[in-house]
TrEMBL record:
Tagged with keyword Transmembrane helix: yes
Protein origin, superkingdom: Bacteria
Annotated signal peptide: none
Similarity remark: Belongs to the binding-protein-dependent transport system permease family.
InterPro entries on file: ABC_transporter_permease (IPR051393), MetI-like (IPR000515), MetI-like_sf (IPR035906)
Organism: Sagittula salina
Annotated protein name in UniProt: Sugar ABC transporter permease
Keyword check for Transport: yes
Any one annotated GO CC term: plasma membrane
Location of the protein in the cell: Cell membrane
Length: 328
């Protein structure tokens, strides 16, 4: 999350169009209530939600591609050959006479017109007709040197289409079933989306801190580096990163402390499930003290004190690192 926040801060710190809008959009999730965030992502990740709808549309498109078989592949390859040859021979610097261009255009029109009927013929066992037409086209386009690259491209296209059929057999594009991303056990998706939502809702805050650190760097340093023909990566490594390191240290420590305190997202999105895959420390303290049939306030207090000690250690570490960097 810290890396994403730094990258985002670097982008919105540049003089890009709509810079203020993008800064506001990245910071906007920070202002939302955890309940609103949970409702948004429950709608997205539900079995009938937006993510499954988008994946369903994508798999339908991939199924249409992977469904090409038999003569469909040959017709598509020949179509690609004719299109490339018409471009190379009719629009190139060594354009042939108009009669040749007319021949290629007529063959292209015939292929487009008869592709579907010939496909049906091929499935009925009379594929020799389509093969004959394909060989005729290949013989015509092979007569000129300008058409040879098209033949190599046709081989690449046919290989891609054949691989698409294999991918369909492996990935089962046409057998996609919606997934309830937050409650399906033993898949890891619940934990993944919980981390994603946590980063999405907090990254804007850390981006704003890093943006303030980046804007505190004098512009004269970058101008001098530009005059010395320093590459952007070297300028980032030699100028930006060392000068923003104190701010980056603060952000790292704050993000670690906040990760120990995560509760709202877990409680509202997964409740610690499926099973106990997303069960966190703070939720355990809450359930021991308030949600158990036999509340154990002593154990909950001990867990709270232990967490406070861990957070204090990280806080003092951040103060020590900041002071050490300021003394260098």
């Amino acid at each position: 999350m810290v890396g994403a926040a730094l990258l985002t801060a670097l982008v919105v710190n540049r003089n890009i169009r709509g810079r203020g809008f993008w800064r506001a959009m990245f910071f906007y999730p920070v202002m939302l209530s955890p309940v609103v965030i949970a409702n948004i992502w429950n709608w997205v990740l539900h079995r009938k939600g937006a993510l499954n709808a988008a994946l369903g549309d994508t798999t339908e498109a991939m199924t249409a591609l992977a469904g090409l078989a038999g003569f469909d592949i040959a017709a598509t390859v020949i179509l690609a050959v004719v299109l490339m040859v018409v471009t190379l021979r009719s629009l190139g610097p060594d354009a042939p006479p108009l009669a040749w261009s007319f021949v290629f255009a007529a063959l292209l029109a015939a292929l487009v017109t008869w592709a579907n009927p010939l496909s049906l013929i091929g499935r009925d066992g009379s594929g020799w007709l389509g093969v004959g037409l394909g060989l005729l086209l290949l013989w015509i386009v092979a007569q000129g040197h300008a058409a040879r690259p098209a033949l190599y491209a046709a081989a690449a296209v046919s290989a891609i289409l054949l691989l698409s059929i294999q991918f369909d057999a492996v990935f089962a594009f046409d057998r996609y079933r919606p997934v309830n991303w937050l409650v399906t056990p033993k898949t890891g998706w619940a934990f993944f989306w919980l981390v994603f939502v946590f980063c999405w809702s907090h990254m804007g805050f850390y981006m704003l801190i890093l943006l303030a650190g980046l804007q505190a760097i004098p512009a004269d340093l970058y101008e001098a580096a530009k005059m010395d023909a320093t590459s952007p990566f070297r300028a980032f490594r030699r100028i930006t990163l060392p000068l923003v390191m104190p701010t980056l240290t603060v952000v790292v420590v704050l993000s670690l402390i906040r990760s120990f305190q995560i509760f709202d997202e877990v409680y509202l999105l997964t409740g610690g499930g499926p099973g106990r895959e997303t069960f966190m420390v703070v939720q355990n303290i809450y359930e021991v003290a308030f949600a158990s049939d036999k509340p154990d306030y002593g154990q909950a207090a001990a867990g709270s004190i232990l967490m406070a000690v861990v957070i204090a250690v990280f806080t003092f570490l951040q103060l020590w690192l900041t002071r050490r960097q300021s003394d260098l």
